[in-house]
Amino acid sequence: MIISANKRYRVLFLLIFLLQTFFINRPVLAGRTGQRPATTNEYTERPLFIEAYPLEIAGISSIALLLFLYILKQRKHRKELRKIRAELSIALDAGFMAVWRYNVKNDTFKTVHRSTIPSNGMTVAEMGKQIHPKDLEKYKDFIRTLRSGQEEQKNGIFRLYTDKGEQWYEVYAIGLKDKYGKVSHIIGTEHNITDMMEQKNMYEKNKQMLDFIFEAVNIMPWEYDVETQTFSVNNVFVERHNYPGNSIRIDKLTQYSHPSDKHLLSEGIESMVKGTSNLMIIQMRTKAPNRDEYRWFEMQGVVYRRNEEGEVIKIIGLKHDITELKHTEELIRLREKAEESNRLKSAFLANMSHEIRTPLNAIVGFSSLMTETENKEDLRAFNKIIQTNNEMLLRLINDILDMSRIEAGQLDFKFSDVDLNELVQNLEKTFRFKIKQEVLIALELPQETYFLHTEKNRLTQVLSNFISNACKYTSEGTITIGYEVEEKQVYFFVRDTGKGIAKENLPHVFERFAKFDAFVQGTGLGLSICELIVQNLGGEIGVESELGKGSTFWCTLPIVHPKQEKTQRNAI
Question: I need a labelling partner for 257 at 20 to 30 A (CA). Which of 13, 28, 48, 214 fits?
C-alpha cells in the first residue's frame, strides 16, 4: 500500500510513516505526574512492549484514513475525467471537428485535438496570411471581439488557403477569463464545411437560374399548407400581383378571382387533399388587388408531402400567366369563326338559290296553268300546290329574317302568362291536316292546365318546328305532343315513330344549315333558330333518336315569376 506510482502519494505515505515513528515510542501517561516511564534498548527475554498515548495514536490513524480516502477520490476523479475526455474526443471526431487554444498573453495558438489550421506557436498575424482576403477583416474582428471580452462566444465562416486549395471552415470559439475577469485564453473548434458550402453555392446558382427561367416564361411557384390553408409565394409573385405579403389564405386569394372561376381553385385543392386526384390543372381569371383587369392564369399543383397517417399536408405548384395565349386562342377562334361564317354564308346562298327557286317555280308555273284551264278539279289541285309553296316560301323568308335578327341581337321577347294546354291543343289542330293519313297525332297533357310566364310566340315557334320535322319524317305511326311540369322547369317534347337520325349525325342536329336528307325541303335553319330561342329563354334543348325507330325532340324552360321578367329580359 505504501508503494505507489505517483510521487505525490509516496510523499504522503512518507509523512504518515514519520508521524507514526515520532509518536510510536512514547508511553502512556503513568499516574498523575504526567511523566513518561523510561524506555530501554536493552534486550531481555521478555517481549518488547511499545507504549504510546491513545489519543495520539487515534489522531495518527485518522489522518492516515483521511489521506487514504482523499487518494481514492482523486483517482476516481481522474478516471471520470479520462472517460469524459474520451467521450468528448469521440464526439469531436464524429463531427469532424478539431480544437485549438489561443493564449491571449503570448499571442500563440496551440492544437488541442486533431490537426488544426492554426499550428502550434502560430500568431494571429501569421494565421491571417492563410485567410482569404475577403474574409480577413471579418476574422480579425472575430478574434478582437473575443479577446477583448466584448462577446463571450462567437461563431463565423471563413475561407482559408490550405494544401488542398481554398477551403471553407466554420469556427466556434469561447473566451475563458482569469480570476481578474480578463480573457486569458480562447478555446475554438473548426469544422471543414467546404462540401456543404459548394452544395449551397450550387443550390443558390441553380435557384437563381430557375428563378430567371420562371421570370422569363412568366411562371411563379407556390406552396400550399393544408393545415393553415395558406399559400406561400416568392417575392416575384408578390411584386407582380401587388399582394401585401408572401403568405395569403385561400379564401383571401379567391376574392380576386373572376366570379365564374371562384370555385375552381378550392375544388382543385380539395380534390388533392381528399385523394381523388394527385394533380391539379385549372385555368382561371384573377386580378391583382386594387386593379380591375382580369388576367388568365393556369394553376398546376401536385401533392408534395404527407404525414405519417398518409394525409396530405403540403401541395406545391406553378402559376402561369396565359393571358397572351388566351388572346391568341381567341383570335384563332374568331378567325376560324369568320372562315366558318363565310363558308356557311356561301353554303347558305347556294342552298337558298335552290330552296327559294323551287317554290317560286311552282308558284309561277301553276299560276300560268290556272289561266289555261277551266277544270275545277285541276284548279283546286293547282291552288293547293300554289298555297303549299307560298307557305314554304314564307317560312324560308321568315327563317332568314329570324336568323338575321338573332345575329344582330334584335330578337324580340314579350313575356306573358301562357296557358300551356291551350297552346299545345292549338298546335295539334293546326298540324292535324298536314300529316299523312297513316299518322296519328296524340297529346300527353296534365289533367289541370299550367300557366307558364314565358314568350308565347317564341315557344310556339319552337314546338311548331319540332312538329313540322316530325311530320316530314314520319310516314306511319304516331306523333305525340306534350309537356310535364317539374320542380323548377317545364319539360316539352315531340315524340315520333319516324325514320330517326343516325348516331353520327346527332351532334350536328342543331347546327346551321344541317340537312341529313337532300330530298326533304327546308333551309336547315329551323332547329338552329330553336336552339337560340331556348337559350335566350334560359332553357335547354336536345334530341334523342335511334335510326329506324323514331326521335324525341325536347326543350326545357325555367319556371319564371313575373317579377323575374325584367331580370331575364336584361340578361337577354
Answer: 214
Place of cell 536493552: 42
**Nine-digit cell at 106?**
503570448
Tens-digit pLDDT profile for residues 124-146: 999 888 899 999 999 999 999 99
Q: What is the pTM of this model?
A: 0.41
Write the CB contacts of 521 (distance below 8 Å, at least 6 apart in sequence). Answer: 355, 358, 392
Which DSSP helix (H) or strand (E) runs through 222?
A: strand 219-225
Q: DSSP states of 505-569 as a string?
A: GGGGTTSTT--S-TTS---S-HHHHHHHHHHHTT-EEEEEEETTTEEEEEEEEE---GGGHHHHH
If one counts every other C-beta atom within 10 angstroms of the C-beta of residue 72, the result is 10
Cβ within 8 Å of residue 310, ≥6 positions away: none
pLDDT digit string, tens, across residues 161-184: 888 888 999 999 999 998 888 999
Structure-derived torsion over alpha carbons of residues 188, 192, 193, 195, reported in degrees to the nearest 10 = 180
Q: Which helix (H) or strand (E) holds 203?
A: helix 194-216
Cα–Cα distance measured from residue 345 to residue 351, given in angstroms and rounded to the nearest whole number: 9
Return d(Cα 523, Cα 358) in angstroms, integer.
12
How far is residue 189's CA from residue 252's CA, in Å, rounded to a whole number? 49
Phi, psi (degrees; rounded to nearest 5) at 170? -100, 125
